[in-house]
Design brief:
The complex is a heterodimer of chains A (173) and B (127). Chain A is built from eight helices and no strands. With 173 residues, chain A is mainly alpha-helical. In chain A, helix 3 packs antiparallel against helix 5. Chain B has 127 residues and is mainly α. Chain B is extended and about 65 Å long. The chains are: A mainly alpha (173), B mainly alpha (127). The interface between A and B is large, with 45 and 55 residues.
Chain lengths: 173, 127
């Protein structure tokens, strides 16, 4: 009988994608650390990762949008508004970032007219995104803690316990 | 097909935001507010909050940025380990927000769950 492929838990996939996005965000927010080229390319990839994140949570987005004005919980409403703000902010960061690009777009042979407003707008929206992301994480903190315990800490502690008991058995023999 | 449609709708909304940003950039409010900030100040803020000496002229301000060498090396060139301070700074800021907001959210969610179970429960019989 052919072996059935094991289906991964969607929460573990979400955790992996979210952790990757968070690390990418931290690095992209520190161009002094990464250098301008990595900053720009990572930010473009970050945009794609945000689309993946939204696609993974598509059902929730549609469900809350339908119930927003009727019977959605207050936490879902606040979360939804916060997510809209975060989406707008990240779109502005990526868009203005592309317009002031010094490495990525010139490498592709694309030149955009320089306009004084883009750089300050880029920096203001970037500063604001740290605050918004903090709120976004705070709203999902319980899920982050429980999922991390379940998929990262629990397997690790089980493995450690098994190896300890095996060693004890070997010692007693 | 469904995935493609969803992706296109996300991109369409992003395009709307871009359109609104362009429209905003052409308003007199945006040009007066952001033009005053100037590109150097914005660059300074974004790349780690280094500041000019107070009272310095614009020409010298550019040369008196703290750690200017490191900043420019980090920005233009490859990885600069001193820039890790920016990552730590953002991480601390996010941690503070989470520490302040997460317990509040938890308490409010508990309260909301308690209220909804009370509403669902049948009314107490009156004696």
């Amino acid at each position: 009988m052919p072996k059935q492929p094991t289906k991964r838990n969607p929460n573990s996939i979400n955790l992996a994608v979210d952790a990757t996005i968070f690390i990418a965000f931290l690095i992209a927010m520190a161009p002094r650390f990464s250098g301008i080229a990595i900053h720009e390319w990572l930010s473009i990839a970050f945009g794609a990762a945000i689309i993946a994140h939204l696609l993974l949570h598509w059902e929730w987005l549609i469900e809350v949008a339908k119930r927003f004005f009727s019977k959605a919980q207050w936490s879902s409403r606040i979360n939804y508004l916060l997510n809209i703000l975060l989406f707008i902010d990240i779109t502005i960061i990526i868009f203005t970032g592309l317009l002031i690009s010094e490495s990525a777009l010139p490498l592709l042979g694309i030149s955009v007219p320089r306009f004084g407003i883009w750089r300050p707008l880029h920096s203001i929206s970037a500063d604001f995104s740290v605050f918004l992301l903090g709120l976004h994480i705070a709203m999902h903190w319980q899920w982050i803690v429980s999922t991390t315990k379940r998929f990262i800490l629990a397997p690790f502690t089980t493995r450690t316990r098994t190896s300890i008991s095996q060693t004890q058995k070997e010692v007693s023999q | 097909m469904k995935l493609l449609a969803r992706t296109l709708s996300i991109l369409a909304i992003a395009l709307l935001v871009v359109g609104a940003t362009i429209a905003f950039s052409r308003t007199s409010y945006a040009t007066t507010t952001f033009a005053q900030r100037g590109p150097d100040r914005a660059r300074g803020e974004f790349s780690g909050g280094f500041t000019a000496q107070p009272g310095a002229s614009p020409g010298t301000a550019r040369d008196t940025f703290r750690n200017r060498g490191d900043v420019e090396r980090g920005r233009r060139g490859g990885i600069n380990l001193f820039g890790i301070v920016d990552i730590i700074k953002n991480l601390v800021l996010i941690a503070i927000i989470v520490m302040l907001i997460a317990p509040l959210v938890r308490q409010l969610q508990k309260r909301q769950a308690r209220l909804s179970t009370q509403r669902r429960a049948p009314p107490n019989p009156t004696t």
